[in-house]
Amino acid sequence: MKILITTAGSYGDVAPYTGLGACLRAAGHDVTLAAHDTFAPLVRGSGLRFRALPGDPGRRRGPAAAVGRKELMRTATAFVRELGAGLVDVAEEEAAEGGVDALVLSATTAPLGWQLAEAMDVPALGAYLQPAHPTRAFAPVVSGARSLGGWGNRTAGRFSLRMVDRVYADAVRDLRSRLDLPAATSAAVRARRERAHWPVLYGFSAAVVARPADWRPGLDVVGNWWPHQAPDARLPSAVEEFLADGPPPVFIGFGSMAAGEGERLGELAVAALRRAGLRGVLQSGRAGLWATGDGVLTIGEVPHALLFPRLAAVVHHAGAGTTAAALRAGVPAVPVPVTADQPFWAARLTAVGAAPGPVPFRRLTVDSLADALTRAVRDPAYASAAQAVARAMATEDAAGQTLKAVEGLARG
User: Fold this and answer.
1) Torsion over CA of 369, 374, 380 and 384, rounded to 10 degrees?
2) Is residue 91 within 8 Å of 115, Cβ to Cβ?
3) Residue among 316, 330, 337, 326 at smallest CA distance from 380
4) Could you give the residue ranges of the DSSP H alpha helices within 46-68?
5) For residues 202-206, average pLDDT
């Protein structure tokens, strides 16, 4: 089979699909992963074919930037319109090389990919990293961690989907015209897919977010898709030397968040580590986090799967991927959520007992971080809870289940 996976966003929105794609490829399928051009080395390094999508995920505002709702909607609408045009270009490139037998779509690309699936007459499967369907169990993940009650949660979830349909309206209209499809609104296309019980696999652990009882058939929680890792991957020698030079350190990193705040955050992190009596590994990330001194090491990108199991705790922005990686390693966390779905995942870490509680980025101080670190590292209950989740995660085979689903769709 020729399988096209499409995704868009930051590193955390792309990396999980490299592991999924590698599993599909190992089963004998021809797999292409379409993502932003900056991720070409990551995708090709996992053995997959790469197609470039427009957009620069690095164009992200710092958390302190004030962005009005109207401006945010305009920016998102323009982004998905550009993304839609890029997806058609990718589909045409694939068609010129023999076509596609199945589409695997992320939550961001699905409302656009549905049009491609219809025009190409091929099956499509959703592969989502965050809960997106309305439920009474919790509020929409982008609305924060506070429950609105059963009725309120589900109502808010439906409203959230209506806002998504508004963002995608222009792009869907453009796509359907370019693909010679009958006119239809983004809301109508979504409703048609839902009535047909379009299959969506959710790539997170049921030990972290249980499948809501009120979800329709065809929505399944399968576990995490882990980023591809080469069999011979190793940590840099400088990291190995630092790890061997004392007790397990604490990791501090904010992923693609906090652009331009590296100096301030580096000073804050070092002061908090000193106050808590801990060593630290700082990952520079988008923020440009950096610090030097005894008991502190600054690093670039390294495989979390190799580093996290050797740490005392992980301080992170509570993105879906980093949250899962810390739990997989069985180490406690100090979530510092910034925006979007991060408060949701921070709340889940707290709920499963693997974190003492979130420290919202806007309230991050030396005192708050040092206190949270002390509790996370010194109280064995947090590590014990994280290890229990890690054991549950180890029983899940998300890539294997996805392989069966994709092959089943093609046969059907």
Assistant:
1) 10
2) no
3) 330
4) none
5) 97
Gap between the Cα atoms of 205 and 26, Å rounded: 23
Per the CB < 8 A criterion, the answer to whether 281 and 288 are in contact is: no
Q: Which two tokens stand for residue 125?
A: 């499967």
Chain segment 32-78, per-residue pLDDT in tens: 999 999 999 999 999 999 999 998 765 544 443 445 667 878 888 99
Taking only the tens place, the pLDDT of each residue in 281-317 is 998 877 777 888 889 999 988 999 999 999 999 999 9
H-helix or E-strand spanning residue 33: strand 30-36
> In which residue are the tokens 């992190």 written?
269
| Nearest partner of 329 among 226, 234, 237, 256, judged by Cα | 226
In a domain, 230, yes or no: no
Phi-psi region of 149 (alpha: psi -120 to 50; beta: other; left: phi over 0): left
Q: Are 374 and 334 in contact (CB under 8 A)?
A: no
In a domain, 229, yes or no: no
Question: In the chain, how many domains are there?
Answer: 2
What Å distances lie between residue 164 and 111, 132, 142, 351, 379, CA to CA? Answer: 9, 11, 12, 28, 42
User: 0.90 exceeded by the pTM?
Assistant: yes
Q: In 56-185, where does DSSP find H-type helix? A: 69-96, 110-120, 149-178
DSSP state of 39: G
In a domain, residue 61? The reply is yes
Q: What string of DSSP letters covers 199-250?
A: -EEE-S-TTTSPPPTTSPTTEEE--PPPPP--TT----HHHHHHHHTSS--E
The CATH number covering residue 245 comes to 3.40.50.2000
DSSP 251-269: EE--TT-STT-HHHHHHHH
From CA 227, how far away is CA 68, in angstroms rounded? 34
Domain that holds residue 183: 2-224+396-411
Determine the Cα–Cα distance for residues 184 and 196; give it in Å rounded to an integer.
16
Judgement on whether residues 205 and 241 belong to the same structural domain of the protein: no
Give the total residue count for the chain: 412
Tell me the pairing of strands 333-335 and 200-202.
Answer: unpaired
Q: Is the dihedral of CA 145, 149, 150, 153 positive or negative?
A: negative
Q: How far apart are the first and last CA of the chain?
A: 13
The answer for residues whose C-beta is within 8 angstroms of residue 66's C-beta and 6 or more apart is none
